[in-house]
Amino acid sequence: MQTMSEEKTASEGHAEGEAGTRSAELVKRARRQHGIEAVRTIIRFAMDRMRETQLQEVASSMTLTTLLSLVPLIAVAMSAFALFPSFADSRHALEEAIISGVLPQQYTETIVTYLRNFTDHASGLGIFGLAGLAVTALLLIDKFFVTVNRIYQVRRMRPWGQRALLYWALITLGPLVIAFSLTVSTQAIRSASEGVDATSVEWGMAVLQFAIQVASYTFLYKFVPNCHVQLSHAAVGGVSASFAGLAVREAFGHYVSAGTLTSIYGAFVAFPVLLLWFYVSWLIVFGGAAITATIPLLTSGRFADSYKRGNDFLTGVALLKTLWRHRREGETSVGITTLADEVDSYPQAARRILLRLAEKGYCVEIMSEKPKSHSDWALLCDPSAKSLRDACTALLVDGTNHLTSPKRASSSRDEGMLFDWYRGFMSAEMLAKPLDEVFTIDEEPQDVQAEQTARPA
Questions:
Q1: DSSP 304-371
Q2: In whole angstroms, how far apart are CA 76 and each of 70, 122, 129, 131, 285?
Q3: Which of 185, 257, 311, 362 has the greatest number of C-beta atoms within 10 Å?
Q4: Cα separation of 94 and 97, whole Å?
C-alpha cells in the first residue's frame, strides 16, 4: 500500500514538473512572439513615417545635393586639420575609417583619390571661393536638419543664428572629434594587443569603427531634432542604422563585384556606384531617424490610433478637457508629460496638437527655463464662451478649402459646393456649445454616481 502511494506521489510530481516545463516554454514562446510582434510594429510604423515624409524622393534629391556639396563639405571639414598640423595622423585615421567603414570596398581607392584631388584643388581657392564652398556645405547640412525634423514632425525649426552656429560646429569640430577618438582608440587597441594575432586586432578595429558609427548616429538622432529625444531611443535608432549600413555595405559589395555595372559603364563605373551608394546611405540615415521617432509612439497606449482619421481632433479635444479639468481643480498650468499621459499619447504629439490649438487662442505654452519637452501649458480661453468650432477648423476641417468657402464680392469664384453643408456642420449643437457645457456632459454622470454611492441606504 505504501509503495502504491509513493508511486502515485512520484507520478503526480512528475506530472507537475512536466506541466511547469510546458508552462515555462509557453511563457518563453509568448515573450518571443511578443518581441517579434514589437519589432514588426516598429518597422511597420517606421515605414509609414518614411512614406509620410516621402523619404525616397528626399533621398534622391539629397543624392544630387551631396554630389554637388561633397567636395565643399570635405574641403571645409579638412581645413580644420590644416589649422592643427599635429592632427595629421588623425586625418589619415579618419580617411582610413571612411574607406573601410563607410564606403563599399570596391572602387573605394578610386573614389577617395578623386575626392582628395578635388579637395586639394579646392584648398587653393581664395577667401570668396572658400566662402562659397562653406555656404554650399551649410545648405547640405540644413537640408538634412530640415528632413530629420520633418520625420519627427517638428513644426518649428531652431532660429537661423543657432542653426548656423550648430552647422559650423558640426562641419569643423565633428571631424576633429571623430578623428581624434579614432586615433586614441586605435593606439590603445594596438598597445593592448601586443602579442595578439592580427585577426583579433582586425576584429577590434572593426568593433571600434562600428561603435563610433553608432555613437555618431545616436548623436545626430538625439540633437538634430528640435524636440526632446530620449537617449535610449536615439541609441536604438543608431544601432539599427549601423547594422543596416553594415548589411547593405556587404550586399552592395557583392552586387558591385558581380561586374554588372562594370559591363555597362566601363571605366566610368565609379560615378554610378557613388550615386547609388549616396542614395542607399541617405535612406539608411533617414530610416534610423524614422525608427527613433517611432519608438515614443509605441510607448503610448493609443499608438495604433495615431494613423486613424480624426485622431488629432479627438486628441485635441481630450487635451482641452484635461486643461479645463485641471483649471477647475485650481491648477493654473499642467506639464506636457502629464497631459500626454492623461490622454494616453506621447509628449511630442501632444505638443504638436497643442501648438495648433494655441494658434486658435485655446491654450498657451508657459515660457520658462524648462526645455520644450517639459514645458507647462495653461487654458487661455474663456470656457464659458469658447466653443469647439476653431478646434475643428484647426485639426479636422480647414475652413479655407474652396469647397467650403463663401462667395466673396472681390472674387469671381462662386461659393463652394459644400458651403451650405459646412455652415450647417459648424453650427451643430456640440460644436456650438461652450466648452463648459461640452465637458460637463461627461462629468455629470460621474458626479451623480458619486453622490449615489455616498448617500446612505
A1: GGGGSTTHHHHHHHHHHHHHHHHHHTT-S-EEHHHHHHHTT--HHHHHHHHHHHHTTTSEEEEP-SS-
A2: 10, 9, 11, 9, 22
A3: 362
A4: 5
Strand arrangement of the beta sheet that strand 376-379 belongs to: 334-335, 376-379, 363-366
From residue 106, how far is each of 281, 404, 407, 449 by CA, in Å?
16, 59, 65, 74
- Cell triple for residue 229? 529625444
pLDDT band at 457 (very low <50, low <70, confident <90, very high): very low
CB under 8 A, 24+ apart: contacts of 200-207: 206/101
| Sign of the alpha-carbon dihedral angle for 307, 310, 316, 319 | negative
**Residues recorded for the chain:** 457
The DSSP-derived string for 91-132 is: HHHHHHHHHHHTS-STTHHHHHHHHHHHHHHHTT--HHHHHH
> CA 15 to CA 24: how far, in whole Å?
14
Contact 246, 83 (CB under 8 A): no
Q: Could you report the per-residue pLDDT of 212-251, keeping only the tens digit for each?
A: 888 888 988 998 888 888 899 999 999 999 898 888 877 7
**Residue 13: is its pLDDT beyond 60?**
no
Longest dimension (CA), the chain: 107
Residue written as grid cell 468657402: 405
Contact 145, 97 (CB under 8 A): no
Task: Kindly list the distances between the CA atom of residue 279 and the CA atoms of 211, 266, 276, 282, in Å, as whole numbers in the listed order.
Answer: 23, 21, 5, 5
